[in-house]
Each structure stands twice: as C-alpha cells, then as structure tokens.
C-alpha cells in the first residue's frame, strides 16, 4: 500500500457514515500572523479558536484533513529512523461532539480493518492522572473492550500522555489549551534487531522506551482544559477530540519496516542520493536521512513562498539548507549536479497532493544558490581548519568567528583526526573574547554590563525574569525598548498602550518571585546567531548582533527555559541568589511606552 493510498483510505473512512466528518483544506505551512509560531506544526493549530468554543463557520462539528507540518524542535533527532522536520499529519477533530468511546474504536478500526495492521501489534498508552486531572480509566476500558489486553496498555504522566502546543500543563502559558491523550504504537516485534546503536533491550522494553521496537502511529488528544493561572486548569466549554497521526509513520507500520525513509514518501529521494554519491544508504543512513528530510522541508518552504534569509521563516530555511548541504558535502556530492534530480523527486512524490503547480526549474536554483554560498564559506573554513596542527577550542572559535563555521563542523573534523574539542573550553574561549572585546569596546556580541557588583548582577537576572513574566501576562508583543541597571534598581521600558493595573503588577511581581524561589539554574550557550534565533530566544529587534551570540536561559534546558534571551551577561548562577524583588513603581514615559522600576528586597 502506498502512502497516498493510506491518506485516501483515512479520508474516506472518516468521511463515511457513521463518522460523517467534513474534510477541510489544510492550512498554509507558513503562518504570517501568528506570534506564537512560525510554521503550522500540527493539524489542530488552525482550529484553536474552535477547540476553545467558538462555533466553526460552517457549523460542522466533525472535521478532518491531512496537514503538511514543520516542526523544528526535533531537528537534532533527524537522522534516526523516525524523526522528521517536515511531515504530514492525518487529523480528525470533534468540536464538542463525539468523545472517547467513538474516537478510540474508530481509530482502532481504521488501523486494523482499513489498513490491515494486525491487532496483536498494537500497544496503547493512557494518562496516569495527577492531582488535577484524573487517571484515564475510561480510555483504558475502551481499549480493553476492543481486545487490547491490559499487558499492552501503559499508563504515563504528563511528559508522555499530555498534549498541548507547548508541552506539559506546567509548561503551558496561561490561555493555552490541552488535555490528556491516548497514543497508539505499532510493535515491529521482539525479533527485530533494529540498529547497531539502539539494540532492542528486551528487559525493560515498553512503548515509550525509544529502543526502536515501537513506533507511535497516532495520538488522540482529549482537549478539555485551558490554563488559567499558575497550576490552574479550567474545563473548556466543550470536550474535544484532536487526533493526529504521522502519515510517514503509519506508512512505515503498513510496510512492516520501522524506517520511515524506506516508504515511498522517501524512496525516490534516497535512490538519487545513492546513485549520485555512489554510496549506499545502509552505510550512510544519517547523512541520507538528514538530506532527504531537510531537502523536502526546503522544497515545501519554497513552495510556500519562503526564500533563505536572515529573518524568521527564511532563517529556518537557511539553516535547514546549510545542514543538509554539509551532509551532501560529506557524502561527496559537491558539484550540486544532483540537486535538480533531488528536488524533482520531492515534487514527484507530492505532485498529486500539495505540489501540483511547482516548477522544478525554479526550485533548484532557489535552493542551489544558498548551497553555493555555504560551500564557499565551508571551503575557506575547512582550509583554515586543515592548516591547523590541532583543532582545539580556540581554533574552533576562530573558525566560527571568522568563517561562520558551525561548532559541530569543527568538532567533526577534529574527531576525524582523533582529536576532540571540549565544549566548556570552547565556551571559555568565548568568555575570554568577550572580556577582551569589552575592554576594547568592540563587542563580538552586544550586551554585557559595565558594573559587575553583586547587586547589579542580581538585578540583571531579575530583569530577564521581569521581561519573561510581562510576556506571559501581557503577551509576546512585549519586548525590551530600553534598560538601565544601577546598584539600587533596574529600569525597564517596553511598549504597552496603558499602564498595568495594580493586579497585573502584582501578578508580574509574584511570578518573578515564584521563579526565584524555584532555585532554577541560570546558564548560557554560545551559538551562531541563526541557531540562536531558531531557539526562539528573545532579542531586541533593533539591535545588531554579531554572527555568534550568547543566549542566557533560566531553567535546566534551553528548550523549556522560563526565560531565554540574547545577552552578554553576566548573571547569577541560580535564581535563588536573587533573594526577592519588588516592583517599585511604573510610569508612562511616552506614547505607548511604559517604564518599570525593579528593586531588590532587603532580606528581613
Ligand atoms: N495535536 C496532536 C499532535 O500533534 C494530535 O493531533 O500530536
């Protein structure tokens, strides 16, 4: 069965009586006016207002489609047999209409009867419950009644069985919707020796163990909640269903091979890479996969009117192209001769669905000129690296600062010589460079404070928390317009039409103090500007930044940091060092600009 057939079967199944869904047109991949995200990254995204309770314009309560999506959070995972940045998501939705007892049997029937997946190969997971949302016994009972034995029903917490656009209930911003979910996994079988690097671990294997034996093929989210405050969820007016299943993964299950790149959605691209490089997929899986995925994403971005640039969507496109260009280079496809053949294959795969009118002669030069640019930098950078007897942190830093060579490229070259670069040393190089440049007032990256007294450093971190809290409470339009920190106070200006209400001010202050009390680590990462922008770190739009920047973040990881900003530092090492803060006063200093003064509260 081809992937197109899977897509068609899904659409027909959910359209048919008694499911009676209306097929809607998928949303464009590129979102222009959504401040929360650059791309459509799931089928539910265009439906958020209706999941929140607004009636759907046509009056329909059962909707479905197949949605092309881009997710860049998984970009580092691309290269294994299942992760993608571009994918297609089959989706069906109930806007306060049917619920669990219809959804789970339907999706089960679709998998087992329509696609013929053996029922014994299906495993499922349900939400284990927490102090706010009960354990999902109802879904478990439904799965049992369908013939899934309890040994194949797993309970997990919010990390695995809760879905919202922004993660767990704790990570959800106020106003976000989400709910517990129930996932279906396909079991490729114990007998399968999947990969040298991820041998099947028999003892502790379970659907979410990531050993490669199981592949998630569908997620039924029961969108029932809205976040209304820190640790506070409220029931939505409707109980909704939001199902999403990755077409590439479902096709892999139908194929009986867990490698999504072996489905007909990738095979023709892999074949060109194979003949073009004279190398075999089996020996170069990571390179082939990264090229195939990123190339596909780039072609779809092109089809959506994006061109590589230094901003927003164009930045992501540039980054994806450079990443796959580097892999092309590694495979020895350096003449770009293969590019038209590759882009043509992408268009062929989707010519009947999404890329009907795309002309290849326009696509490949659009992508090719970006690759050309990257190659010329790469050659110069590699030449420099080659001329060095040892590739250490300092050399890696120089090649980044001078040629824009990503750290990973230097490290890979170092490794090929049996050398290694210590990331901490590399970051230290940065520090060194920063203080040097500060003293000569020619910054590698802007930022940095003149006064390094403990009070100023504390207030500096507190100011990052102030900005993060303002954004949470007032919205992402809040950016820094001005900032000045002395030993006694931090002064912070931002655009807002009116002064904040007392209640809002109190909320902001409380939020900062709550974060301080959580004793979160404050760390930084040094990275190329492109990469930093792609993390979504806050930066002042009218500032100029060097090609390499420092990003400070509060929390364990940059991905789920409470605050994440381009900044030279310095900052405290842990929020607990700040003590407590107080918002001393606010002023309206001009049309649409508000100024807030923040002070440290003396310890009692
Ligand atoms: N929104 C859910 C997901 O993206 C299901 O559609 O996984």
UniProtKB/TrEMBL annotation:
<comment type="similarity">
    <text>Belongs to the class-II aminoacyl-tRNA synthetase family.</text>
</comment>
<dbReference type="InterPro" id="IPR018164">
    <property type="entry name" value="Ala-tRNA-synth_IIc_N"/>
</dbReference>
<keyword id="KW-0030">Aminoacyl-tRNA synthetase</keyword>
<dbReference type="InterPro" id="IPR050058">
    <property type="entry name" value="Ala-tRNA_ligase"/>
</dbReference>
<dbReference type="InterPro" id="IPR045864">
    <property type="entry name" value="aa-tRNA-synth_II/BPL/LPL"/>
</dbReference>
<dbReference type="InterPro" id="IPR012947">
    <property type="entry name" value="tRNA_SAD"/>
</dbReference>
<keyword id="KW-0547">Nucleotide-binding</keyword>
<dbReference type="GO" id="GO:0002161">
    <property type="term" value="F:aminoacyl-tRNA deacylase activity"/>
</dbReference>
<keyword id="KW-0648">Protein biosynthesis</keyword>
<dbReference type="GO" id="GO:0006419">
    <property type="term" value="P:alanyl-tRNA aminoacylation"/>
</dbReference>
<feature type="domain" description="Alanyl-transfer RNA synthetases family profile">
    <location>
        <begin position="1"/>
        <end position="604"/>
    </location>
</feature>
<dbReference type="Pfam" id="PF07973">
    <property type="entry name" value="tRNA_SAD"/>
</dbReference>
<dbReference type="GO" id="GO:0004813">
    <property type="term" value="F:alanine-tRNA ligase activity"/>
</dbReference>
<dbReference type="GO" id="GO:0005829">
    <property type="term" value="C:cytosol"/>
</dbReference>
<dbReference type="InterPro" id="IPR018162">
    <property type="entry name" value="Ala-tRNA-ligase_IIc_anticod-bd"/>
</dbReference>
<keyword id="KW-0436">Ligase</keyword>
<dbReference type="InterPro" id="IPR002318">
    <property type="entry name" value="Ala-tRNA-lgiase_IIc"/>
</dbReference>
<keyword id="KW-0820">tRNA-binding</keyword>
<keyword id="KW-0694">RNA-binding</keyword>
<dbReference type="GO" id="GO:0000049">
    <property type="term" value="F:tRNA binding"/>
</dbReference>
<dbReference type="InterPro" id="IPR018165">
    <property type="entry name" value="Ala-tRNA-synth_IIc_core"/>
</dbReference>
<dbReference type="InterPro" id="IPR018163">
    <property type="entry name" value="Thr/Ala-tRNA-synth_IIc_edit"/>
</dbReference>
<protein>
    <recommendedName>
        <fullName>alanine--tRNA ligase</fullName>
        <ecNumber>6.1.1.7</ecNumber>
    </recommendedName>
</protein>
<dbReference type="Pfam" id="PF01411">
    <property type="entry name" value="tRNA-synt_2c"/>
</dbReference>
<dbReference type="GO" id="GO:0005524">
    <property type="term" value="F:ATP binding"/>
</dbReference>
<keyword id="KW-0067">ATP-binding</keyword>
């Amino acid at each position: 069965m081809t992937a197109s057939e899977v897509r068609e079967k899904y659409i027909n199944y959910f359209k048919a009586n008694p499911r009676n869904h209306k097929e809607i047109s998928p949303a464009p991949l590129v979102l222009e006016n959504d401040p929360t995200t650059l791309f459509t990254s799931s089928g539910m995204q265009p439906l958020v207002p209706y999941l929140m309770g607004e009636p759907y314009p046509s009056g329909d309560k059962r909707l479905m489609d197949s949605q092309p999506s881009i997710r860049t959070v998984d970009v580092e995972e691309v290269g294994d047999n299942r992760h993608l940045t571009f994918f297609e998501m089959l989706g069906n939705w109930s806007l306060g209409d049917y619920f669990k007892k219809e959804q789970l049997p339907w999706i089960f029937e679709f998998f087992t009867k329509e696609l013929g997946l053996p029922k014994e190969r299906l495993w499922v997971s349900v939400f284990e419950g927490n102090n706010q949302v009960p354990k999902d016994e109802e879904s478990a009972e439904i799965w049992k009644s369908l013939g899934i034995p309890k040994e194949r029903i797993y309970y997990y917490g919010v990390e695995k069985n809760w879905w919202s656009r922004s993660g767990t209930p704790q990570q959800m911003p106020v106003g976000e919707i989400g709910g517990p979910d129930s996932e279906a996994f396909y079991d490729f079988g114990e007998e399968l020796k999947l990969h040298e690097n991820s041998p099947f671990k028999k003892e502790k294997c379970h659907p979410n163990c990531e050993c490669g034996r199981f592949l998630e093929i569908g997620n039924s989210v029961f969108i029932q909640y809205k976040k209304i405050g820190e640790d506070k969820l409220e029931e939505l007016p409707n109980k909704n269903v939001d199902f999403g299943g990755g077409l590439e993964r479902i096709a892999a299950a139908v194929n009986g091979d867990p490698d999504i790149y072996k489905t007909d959605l990738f095979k023709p691209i892999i074949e060109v890479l194979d003949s073009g490089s004279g190398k075999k997929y089996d020996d170069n899986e990571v390179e082939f996969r990264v090229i195939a995925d990123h190339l596909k994403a780039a072609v779809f971005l092109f089809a959506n009117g994006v061109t590589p640039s230094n901003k927003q969507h164009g930045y992501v496109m540039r980054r994806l192209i450079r990443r796959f260009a580097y892999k092309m280079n590694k495979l020895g496809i350096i003449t770009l001769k293969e590019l038209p053949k590759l882009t043509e294959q992408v268009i062929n795969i989707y010519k009947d669905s999404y890329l009907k009118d795309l002309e290849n002669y326009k696509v490949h030069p659009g992508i090719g000129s970006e690759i050309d640019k990257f190659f010329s930098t790469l050659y110069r950078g590699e030449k420099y690296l080659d001329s060095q007897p040892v590739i250490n942190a300092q050399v890696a830093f120089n090649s980044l600062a001078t040629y824009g060579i990503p750290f990973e490229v230097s490290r890979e070259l170092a490794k090929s010589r049996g050398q290694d670069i210590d990331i901490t040393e590399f970051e230290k190089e940065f520090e060194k460079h920063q203080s040097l440049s500060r003293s000569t007032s020619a910054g590698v990256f802007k930022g940095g404070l003149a006064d390094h007294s403990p009070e100023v450093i504390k207030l500096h971190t507190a100011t990052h928390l102030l900005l993060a809290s303002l954004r949470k409470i007032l919205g992402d339009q809040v950016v820094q317009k001005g900032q000045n920190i002395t030993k006694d106070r931090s002064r912070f200006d931002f655009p807002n039409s009116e002064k904040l209400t007392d209640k809002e001010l109190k909320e902001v202050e409380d939020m900062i103090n709550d974060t301080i009390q959580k004793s979160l680590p404050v760390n930084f990462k040094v990275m190329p500007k492109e990469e930093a922008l792609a993390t979504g770190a806050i930066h002042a739009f009218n500032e100029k930044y060097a090609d390499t920047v420092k990003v400070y973040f509060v929390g364990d990881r940059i991905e789920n940091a409470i605050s994440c900003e381009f900044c030279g530092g310095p900052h405290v090492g842990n929020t607990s060092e700040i003590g407590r803060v107080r918002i001393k006063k606010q002023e309206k200093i001009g049309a649409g600009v508000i100024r807030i003064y923040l002070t440290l509260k003396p310890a009692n």
